[in-house]
Amino acid sequence: MHVPFCRRKCPYCSFYSFTPQQGDFARYQEAVQAHLAGLANDPLVQGMPFDTVFFGGGTPSLLPPALLSQMLKDCLSALSCSSEAEISLEVNPGTVQVDDLPGLRRAGFNRLSFGVQSFLDHELKLLGRIHTALEAEEAVIAARRAGFTSISLDLMYGLPGQSPADWQTSLEKALTLEPEHLSLYELTPEAPSPLYNAVEHGAVQLPNEEEVLTMMDCTTSLIRTSPFSRYEISNYARNGHRCRHNINYWQNGSYLGLGPGAVSSLGGRRFTIPPGVEEYHYRARNAQSVWHEEERLSSEESFRETVIMGLRMLEGVCANRLKERYQIDLSVYYGPVLDQLLNRGLLVWRDTRLTLSERGLPLANQVMAALV
After folding, report:
1. Per-residue confidence of the chain (372 residues) as pLDDT tens digits?
2. How would you label 277-297 residue by residue, b for 16+ Cβ within 10 Å and e otherwise?
3. Which of 259, 178, 164 lies closest to 215 in space, CA to CA?
4. Crossing angle of helices 319-326/330-343, nearest 10°?
5. Angle, helices 364-371/299-310, rounded to nearest 10 degrees
6. d(CA 148, CA 141)
7. 289 strand-pairing partners
8. Are the C-beta atoms of residues 235 and 229 closer than 8 Å to each other?
9. What is the arrangement of strands in the sheet containing 269-272, beginning at the earlier edge strand?
10. Which pLDDT belongs to residue 46?
11. Against a cut of 0.85, is the pTM above it?
12. Sign of torsion, CA 293 306 244 62?
């Protein structure tokens, strides 16, 4: 569920989102309801079992709690969702009220993902975040009191002006809050975003490679003495708290996207809903297809995509399963390219699984580029 609203757009963000105007929330809800109603007769969705629901954005927590609760109810009523479904809500600590959290838990949300990004106020200001470090801490504590037993924190390193000591301070603070999950991302400015333009024109400088590697080493050191284990390039979890929703993406599974700008992958095809609440509302309410673009990947294209995304996970990809799914032999397909990556020590075979090595993890982008 893509919620495209933000109180203020962060300068590093390239996702589709905007500041809502009067009536946008109602139009958005009406459009999603109509979209769900139309899916009742869609053969691609009929009978499809759903194991996870994820409200992302944008800033889903900008929606009123009653509206969030109703939209979740609509999803659960219209789709075949597991009774044990992982139901996540992305939360900006600056947009959630402590008193609203118990109601969201009762509504069925069982996992909160807090977009903290930093526990240092000067870094939050630089990133254009609307919350303070103290507000983030208080929101996490309040979520625990409200009964949430699966809490994830997002943090970013490699920020302009950030030192390894700054990163260590933020990560140590996150660990003291005892979340179940951590997403630790290197800031990578992407177009179109103001930060991307500033970096491209030399107005802003990011930490150099050596400093970023030191931050990565700091992460490894702190995680080693914590109850977390790394299961994906940027994600760490306590036992039993890996993000099932994201694992489905990394395994190139099927998923349904709702909301303007959302993407679906169904029946070997990929569908995109164009940005714009007005158009989404019009199409959904008038029984027109909301999907504007359709892409059908060849078996070979899907194979490469599955390999590249699957290697993000520390368990890597299974050559036997790939051959069963695509009738393509991993070793034969990549041939000398794979041999070179293995000889350089960037990839390793673990029985029938191909994984990034310890040396290859920090150089994952180079490995993926070679396998495209």
Report:
1. 999 999 998 999 988 999 999 999 999 999 999 999 999 888 889 889 999 999 999 999 999 999 999 999 999 999 999 999 999 999 999 999 999 999 999 999 999 999 999 999 999 999 999 999 999 999 999 999 999 999 999 999 999 999 999 999 999 999 999 999 999 999 998 888 999 999 999 999 999 999 999 999 999 999 999 999 999 999 999 999 999 999 999 999 999 999 999 999 998 899 999 999 999 999 999 999 999 878 898 999 999 999 999 999 999 999 999 999 999 999 999 999 999 999 999 999 999 999 999 999 999 999 999 999
2. bebbbebbbeeeebbeeeeeb
3. 164
4. 150
5. 170
6. 10
7. none
8. no
9. 263-266, 269-272, 293-296
10. 87
11. yes
12. negative
| 364 neighbors 311 (Cβ within 8 angstroms) | yes
Distances (CA, A) of 115 to 64, 123, 249: 18, 14, 20
| Residue indicated by tokens 């700054």 | 166
Tell me how far CA of residue 258 lies from CA of 64, 70, 271, 273, in angstroms: 18, 15, 11, 8
Cα–chain-centroid distance for residue 33? 24
Long-range contacts of 133-138 (CB under 8 A, 24+ apart): 133/173, 135/93, 135/94, 136/93, 137/173, 137/177, 138/93, 138/98
Question: Are the CB atoms for 157 and 215 separated by under 8 Å?
Answer: yes
Question: Residue 236, SS3?
Answer: strand
Burial (0-12, 13-18, 19+ Cβ within 10 Å), 64: exposed
What is each CA distance from 336 to 115, 339, 360, 363, 370, in whole angstroms? 41, 5, 18, 19, 11
